Amino acid sequence: MILLTSVTILGSVENSTALYSERTFFGVVRVLDVGLSSAQSRAQAKEFEPELRILVHGTTLHGAQLLHGPGRKRPVSYYGLATGIGLVMAQRTPGAAIDVGVIGLGAGALAAYGREGDRFRFYEIDPGVVRIAGEEGYFSFLSDSAAEIEVILGDARLSLQGETEANGEPQFDILVVDAFSSDSVPVHLLTREAMELYSRNVKVGGLIAFHASNRFLDLSSILYRIGLDLNLHMLSIENGSVPFEMGQPARWIFLSRDEERIEALGRIGPARVQSLGVQLRSVRFQTPPRARFADAALWTDNYSSLLALIRK
Question: Which domains does the chain have, with CATH numbers?
Answer without folding.
Answer: 78-309 (3.40.50.150)
